[in-house]
Amino acid sequence: MSFRLSLLPLLLGLALTGCATVGPDYQAPAVRMDAQWQAALPHGGSTGALLDWWQSFNDPTLSSLLKAAEADSPTLDQALAAIASARASDSQASLSGLPTLSASGSDSRSGSQGGNVGRSSSAALDASWEIDLFGGVRRSQQASSAALAASEADWHDARVSLAAEVASEYVSYRACQLQLAHDQDSYRSQQQTASATAVSVAAGFSAPADGALIDASLASAHSTLLAQQAECEVSIKSLVALTGLSEPLLRDKLAATAAAIPQPASLQLDTLPVQLLSQRPDLVSAERSLAAASAKIGVAEAERYPRLSLTGSLSSTTTRGSGNSQGWSFGPTLSLPIFDGGSSKAAVLTARANYQSALASYKSAVRSAVEETEQALVRLDSATQRESSVAASAANYRRYFMATQQQWQAGSASLLTLEEARRNALSAEQSLITVQRDRVLYGISLYKALGGGWQLGNATAAKGEAA
């Protein structure tokens, strides 16, 4: 129509002088954060890198399990597949603004019964180039590039989470072993007490009630022992699932190291919460997803504007008896959306709503990151302060039990007093193991809350590793 033809010179001039880009230009949102941690920083909050923190445990079994988990993890495989998919989409988007060229050819014979056979051959070369008048292609490239960066950050987040989960389960298993050893010692001690009490009751030196009391205590200790054994077995099953190792091989690895809770070196961290933005891959992923959502607004906006393409073709046809004919064509093609029932406007509104949703998700992720870090700081500080008190309590309850046991053997203390002293000693020792375990687990939680030392620059390494 004449309206379209009148626009053609204008759009051609725009294509030659420079193209517009519709949609918002993305800027990372400013998130309000406190200038410093509100919780106490362990060890003075000295600044240092968190990379290779697992080496500070100096536990070869833990290192071996971490390597096995990373080498065979469905979660990491899924994250790598997401990177490959995002990278393919990014490559596709980067090529979408280039001209396209296609070739075709045919060779056919025709004839009739008793007539001559004719032959016709043709070849054609077609080219087209859609000019990115309003930046739809550029916005699409921005969106795919941001999505790729988000998928790479997700892969790093999966690695950090997997390592923290393996280490936490390993620490819990070692604590379970220590608790099991204490329960076994307590059970053996109660068996000896039960034997001595049975002899005393049979000889008439002790009341039958003492026999009933020690039998009840022995049955309770046996039940506790069985429950603790089951907990240790459950931890082994979890480690099998996390590492992908066979259970016999895993048990061999665990048996190669003495049963002790690994003790990492002091956890170092930056004192400013803003560092979370560069240390936590999940926040990087959320921010890059937000950037992709912003770019998609421009993609949707560009669909509402005219589209201009330059097309050209070369053709050659040879027919027996008719000779050879050649032809060519070149010119612009303008497509102008006039009426689509409001679908293009709805697509823009949808893209803007998706951006607002991504923005809310990003802000929520930042708040959660600060919350996780503050909570881990509080718990780690509490466990660190409580450990010395709990250790003193356990040592003194153990000494009291040993003294009471000697008095009972000498006949100056009752069996009830002995069993009460035993329960107090066992409870205090359980509390010590628990607080020692928790101190390490809270350190791992803090390490994970700070992103495992990952930095945005590591995305380059991820590209090579995920290729």
TrEMBL record:
PANTHER family: CATION EFFLUX SYSTEM PROTEIN CUSC, OUTER MEMBRANE CATION EFFLUX PROTEIN. Gene3D superfamilies: Outer membrane efflux proteins (OEP). The lineage of its organism: Bacteria, Pseudomonadati, Pseudomonadota, Betaproteobacteria, Neisseriales. Residues 97-111 have a biased composition (Low complexity). It is found in: Cell membrane. Belongs to the outer membrane factor (OMF) (TC 1.B.17) family. This is Efflux transporter outer membrane subunit. Its main location: membrane. It is a lipid-anchor. It comes from Vogesella oryzagri. It comes from the Bacteria. It holds the Pfam family OEP. Residues 97-119 are annotated as: Disordered. Residues 1-20 form the signal peptide. Keywords: Lipoprotein, Membrane, Palmitate, Signal, Transmembrane, Transmembrane beta strand.
